[in-house]
């Protein structure tokens, strides 16, 4: 059901749908009613598109034998009521399903074609009342009502309106031409069939509305299950990424070893192409790890904190993605030479208010929001591990210096 899946339903609409299924007359709110009407029109449009030739064949089967077997003055005049209007309606339906500029107006053409054909057959039945052409027009009137209400299954209210407009047009023409109105005959071939077809149309419409509501609810539940499954898969993947990261940074590592492992992790997980990791020492950023740097970037081992992009990102304490990368800054080495990265991701590392360092990676594409969210989740364990590694390194350095002093 294409129309049913065009948009998701809200919680309130879901409640309306469930209440509608429990009631005898299935009714929707404004938005759902509009979507159902669009669905019904789309169904009729598709049915017309696939069956317009069948309707044309049925028209020929009814009309051609009568025209060939009965050749009287009344039958020649009957063609103006029971042949040509229906032919025009069928041609209009064919055009509305085949011509691109007319397809958006197919529904309007459907109602106009129904009204035109019904007006013609009603006039024919009134004009030739008591004659053979009048009987044929009466039968055609009943056929058209059945097609409109039961075969095309157009919304019954709009179809009834179109039929009543056709009746009004036929009565107006009949009065202008001073034709006697056979009220009893019209009751038999129009009023009673219209009542029966309308009742049947509403019954079919209730069934169609129930199917529409059921399909919407099933699609909503399926979409919800799919979202839960996708969320579970994302959570599982995120936990696996977190576990892998914790495994990488576990152990008694030096700051340099830790940051080297962090860079290798980023290369694998977020498809970074190059990167460098710095620690903050005496208001200078000192590079302790690098991956895939070009010669110019490799030469930058110590940077002043307040005079670089890295320093500005470190002061902001936020993950920053820079899309306008300065020329020559962390260029990517590719087969045909150097190429500027599409984006530069700067990941400052803080433990509380204390700045510890920063990691920068370059990518051939902008990094996605889920990748940034992953780094935000990894910040706390990385900051704790880096601070522990720095303290351990400082302790080892002091112990080594004390040993050297004692030996001297």
Can you walk through the features of this model?
With about 400 residues, the protein is of the alpha+beta class. About 65% of the residues lie in helices and about 10% in strands. The strands form 2 sheets. A 6-stranded antiparallel β-sheet has the order 3-2-1-8-7-4, sandwiched between helices. Mean pLDDT is about 85; it is low at about 1-5.
Features of the shown structure:
12 helices; 8 strands; two-stranded antiparallel sheet; 408 residues; alpha+beta; rod-shaped
Q: What is the topology, as strand order, of the major beta sheet?
A: 3-2-1-8-7-4
What class, by secondary structure content? alpha+beta
In total, the number of strands is: 8
**Beta-strand residue fraction:** 5-15%
Give average pLDDT, whole number.
Answer: 85
How much helicity do the residues have? Answer: 55-70%
Approximate shape: rod-shaped
Radius of gyration: 39 Å
Q: Count helical runs.
A: 12
Low-confidence stretches are 1-6
Distance between the termini: 88 Å
The biggest sheet amounts to:
6 strands, antiparallel
Order of helices and strands: HHHHHHHHHEEHEHEEEEEH
């Amino acid at each position: 059901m294409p129309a049913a899946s065009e948009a998701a339903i809200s919680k309130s609409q879901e409640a309306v749908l469930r209440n509608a299924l429990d009631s005898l007359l299935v009714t929707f709110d404004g938005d759902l009613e509009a979507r159902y009407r669009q669905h019904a029109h789309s169904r009729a449009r598709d049915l017309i598109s696939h069956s317009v030739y069948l309707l044309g064949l049925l028209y020929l089967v009814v009309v051609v034998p009568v025209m060939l077997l009965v050749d009287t003055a009344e039958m020649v005049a009957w063609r103006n009521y029971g042949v040509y209007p229906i032919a025009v309606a069928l041609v209009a339906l064919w055009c509305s399903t085949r011509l691109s500029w007319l397809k958006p107006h197919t529904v309007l053409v459907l109602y106009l074609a129904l009204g035109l054909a019904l007006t013609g057959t009603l006039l024919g039945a009134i004009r030739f009342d008591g004659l053979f052409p009048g009987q044929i027009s009466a039968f055609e009137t009943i056929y058209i009502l059945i097609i409109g209400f039961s075969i095309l299954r157009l919304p019954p209210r709009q179809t009834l309106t179109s039929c009543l407009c056709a009746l009004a047009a036929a009565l107006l023409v009949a009065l202008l031409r001073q034709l006697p109105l056979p009220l009893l005959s019209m009751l038999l071939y129009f009023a009673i069939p219209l009542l029966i077809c309308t009742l049947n149309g509403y019954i079919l419409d209730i069934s169609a509305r129930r199917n529409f509501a059921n399909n919407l609810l099933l699609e909503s539940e399926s979409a919800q299950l799919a979202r839960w499954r996708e969320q579970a898969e994302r959570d599982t993947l995120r936990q696996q990424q977190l576990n892998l990261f914790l495994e990488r940074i576990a152990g008694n590592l030096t700051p340099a070893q830790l940051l080297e492992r962090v860079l290798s992790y980023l290369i694998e997980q977020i498809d970074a192409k190059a990167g460098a990791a710095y620690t903050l020492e005496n208001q200078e950023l000192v590079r302790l790890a690098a991956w895939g740097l070009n010669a110019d970037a490799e030469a930058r081992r110590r940077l002043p904190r307040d005079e670089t992009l890295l320093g500005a990102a470190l002061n902001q304490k936020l993950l920053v993605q820079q899309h306008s990368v300065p020329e020559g800054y962390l260029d990517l080495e590719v087969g045909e030479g150097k190429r500027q990265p599409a984006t530069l991701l700067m990941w400052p590392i803080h433990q509380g208010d204390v700045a510890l360092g920063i990691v920068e990676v370059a990518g051939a594409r902008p990094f996605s929001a889920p990748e940034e969210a992953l780094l935000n989740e990894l910040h706390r364990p990385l900051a704790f591990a880096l601070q522990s590694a720095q303290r351990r390194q400082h302790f080892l350095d002091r112990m080594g210096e004390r040993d050297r002093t004692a030996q001297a």
